[in-house]
């Protein structure tokens, strides 16, 4: 996977590239990444990337020419890449979209700033418009990092060791079971006895029950569109009666 981010703040990405799983994936060449300054594609002497909105009003709009030049130049060097605009008007990002995006060879992530980008950028040059949720950010950069983080961990080999990606929360539509580590008693709270028993089947049963119960309590909305296995339905019935 090849990520190119188009932004007026490329330095924001340096700490993101430099830590944890993202850093390891870069070092292992599971992903490649660069942040390009849109300003470099502005033709004027002061490299201006914004302008006042037609029709008046407060705030500034991202000019189309530098952005279009940056997207075209990047597309030419990235065969099979999709262009993603991070925008509050986009479809809300979820795990299914992360899986879809992870299937491409490359992603060009366009980070808006100011009040927004000129509408005419969207029609020909953008494949996806994505928001990361219904709250107001100051620009698309953090959203681009969220997207790259979620996509990177789906790239085969990027997590290292065993492929935990598919066992995760959301990948089967339920929240994960509760987790415990040492000590066995922490502030008068004991670890569930079954987890210390060594009975693998009982542990699996307990984890599925924990998973279904937690989803019912914390995220009942996830159960609306989910196909349950007979075992899951039985657990759910029991906890709904409780
Ligand atoms: C006053 C109207 N605002 C729209 C909600 C203007 C506006 C606010 C914030 C325009 C752009 C932005 C900057 N946000 C993003 O670029 C952004 C974003 C977000 O704010 N929330 C969730 N996902 C995203 S992706 C890009």
Report on this model:
This protein is α/β, with parallel strands linked by helices and 242 residues long. The protein contains nine helices and nine strands. Strands 2-1-6-5-7 form a five-stranded parallel β-sheet, with helices on both faces. The longest helix is centred in the C-terminal third of the chain and has 19 residues, at 200-218. The chain is elongated. It starts with a strand and ends with a helix. The structure holds ligand 9D3. Residues 86-88, 112, 115-116, 131-133, 135-140, 143 line the site of ligand 9D3.
Annotate the secondary structure layout.
Elements: E1 2-7, H1 14-17, H2 20-27, E2 32-37, E3 50-51, E4 61-62, H3 64-77, E5 81-92, H4 95-102, E6 106-111, H5 120-125, E7 128-131, H6 141-152, E8 185-186, E9 189-190, H7 200-218, H8 221-224, H9 230-241
Parallel strand pairs: 1-2, 1-6, 5-6, 5-7
Antiparallel strand pairs: 3-4, 8-9
Helix pairs in contact: 4-6, 7-9
The structure holds ligand 9D3.
Radius of gyration: 23 Å
Hetero ligands:
ligand 9D3
**C-alpha termini separation:** 47 Å
Global structural class: alpha/beta
User: Which regions contain 5 or more consecutive residues with pLDDT less than 50?
Assistant: none
The overall strand count is: 9
The secondary-structure element order is EHHEEEHEHEHEHEEHHH
Query: Biggest sheet, open or closed, and with what strands and sense?
Result: 5 strands, parallel
Biggest sheet, spatial arrangement of strands: 2-1-6-5-7
Name the shape in a single word. Answer: elongated
Our count of helices gives: 9
> Could you estimate the helical fraction of the residues in percent?
25-40%
Approximately how much beta-strand content do the residues carry? 15-25%
């Amino acid at each position: 996977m090849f990520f190119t981010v188009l932004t007026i703040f490329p330095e924001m990405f340096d700490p993101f590239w430099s830590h944890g799983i993202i850093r390891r994936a870069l070092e292992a060449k599971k992903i490649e990444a660069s942040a390009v300054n849109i300003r470099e594609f502005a033709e004027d002497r002061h490299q201006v990337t914004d302008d006042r909105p037609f029709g008046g009003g407060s705030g500034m709009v991202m000019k189309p020419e530098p952005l279009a030049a940056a997207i075209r130049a990047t597309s030419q060097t990235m065969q099979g890449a999709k262009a993603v605009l991070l925008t509050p008007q986009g479809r809300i990002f979820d795990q299914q979209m992360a899986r879809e995006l992870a299937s491409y060879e490359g992603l060009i992530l366009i980070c808006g700033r100011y009040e927004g980008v000129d509408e005419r950028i969207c029609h020909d040059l953008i494949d996806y418009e994505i928001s990361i949720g219904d709250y107001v950010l100051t620009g698309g950069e953090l959203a681009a990092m969220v997207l790259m983080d979620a996509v990177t961990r789906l790239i085969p080999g990027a997590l290292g060791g065993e492929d935990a990606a598919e066992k995760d929360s959301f990948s089967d539509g339920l929240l994960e079971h509760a987790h415990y580590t040492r000590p066995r008693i922490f502030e008068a709270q004991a670890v569930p006895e079954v987890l210390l028993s060594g009975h693998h089947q009982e542990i699996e049963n307990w984890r599925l029950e924990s998973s279904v119960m937690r989803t019912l309590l914390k995220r009942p909305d996830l159960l609306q569109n989910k196909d349950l296995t007979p075992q899951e339905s039985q657990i759910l019935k029991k906890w709904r009666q409780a």
